[in-house]
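Predict the holo structure. Ligand: magnesium ion.
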Amino acid sequence: MKVDLTGPLYSSLENATEEYKQAKAGGDIGQAKKKALECSRIMKVLAEKIPSQKDAYLKKAEKWERLADNVKNTILERKNVPIGSGRESRKIGSGTGNKRGGEHGSSEEDEVEAGDEFISYAESLIAKSNVRWDDIGGLEEAKLLMKETIAIAGLQKPESIKPWKGIMLFGPPGTGKTLLAAAAAGSLDATFFDIKADKVLSKYFGESSKLVSALYSAARKHSPSIVFIDEFDAISLSREGDISESSRRLLSTLLSELDGLQDKKSDRLLLTLAATNTPWDLDPAVLSRFPRWIKVSLPDKTACKEIIKIHIKDLDASKLDLDKLASACVEKCYSGRDLQNLCQQAVWNMIQQENKDLDSLADLPYAELSKRKLNVTPLKHEYFEAAFEKIRSPLTKEQLDKYEKWDKEFGG
Ligand SMILES: Nc1ncnc2c1ncn2[C@@H]1O[C@H](COP(=O)(O)OP(=O)(O)O)[C@@H](O)[C@H]1O
Ligand SMILES: [Mg+2]
């Protein structure tokens, strides 16, 4: 497997940028210069690692070199600003209104510092997905709609035909929403931006709408792209209509990306998928403007059977009555995640039953151990019966009714 080193590079870049800023604010010329050169070096490595962005990174490397050369002037200049006119302001040119010489230098600085931070973070959210549609049991309607959307987006077509640009997946936890997004990205081999809404909000509180813009510009650059925003409710908790100003800005940037106003090149595939376990927490603006909604429900009997088969796929299931098992799972309100846990527990029960000597085997040298085989037998009902005792669905009938009711009123 190829190891992706760009994630660590982005975080070293972030650290070096921060250290540069601190050194500059503290008037430490030597350290500031050193850090600017380090940023330049990282940019050059990134240029090599990401051929599609080579020119952009090389340009930034040059800018950092220029900043390194000018750092002495920049710092001395700051020290000469008369007392009382914002001398101690940390960010040059950040709205304190002080006119200084060397305007060119400072705007370049702002650009290279601020732009990079958001773009770097956006690009660090790129994940790799190996999930395929076949790894998902049931959810036929959701899979079909997503496949159709992707196909329409990719095909040549008249201009007035536009695929959905955003799909909101909602339903109880553990039902496969994240899995669906990963399968869409994995089967397309698309660039997959995997975002946890609350993490982004807490990291960039107040500036998260800038991150959203950077995110979509990175997604356009790396298309075909899937932007997946998990726990979407964290962005738009409606709490009696009272959401914070920064969430509101973030939301409106995001929704205008979805409206496609900023995306002139409609031939590029850029699909936004979002997921929430608590659709009733969403802001009304999201309800009316998110293009497509898909309810992701608990698996029915057929789906339970499929999901069980997926999770025991290379084991012998010929002695199992899968219909009976699946009915019991429906009865217990199991989600896909519960089914996965059930299968894991049942397989574990089989392993313990058939391999009584595991603890003494663990004393063997590894070379010896790796020559031996684990005893594996066909799965039996008793293993599942014992597993049923351990796996409890966290969902109550009342909670499930809440999803139904919400779907009737707002979904679709
Ligand atoms: N429909 C499904 N088919 C196969 N496995 C599933 C399904 N739904 C859930 N799972 C299993 O449960 C895990 C958690 O599912 P996830 O997609 O994270 O749920 P959600 O995002 O809806 O909370 C998955 O990694 C997968 O192993
Ligand atoms: Mg999830």
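Confidence is low (pLDDT under 50) at residues 82-105. The CA atoms of residues 294 and 397 lie 21 Å apart.
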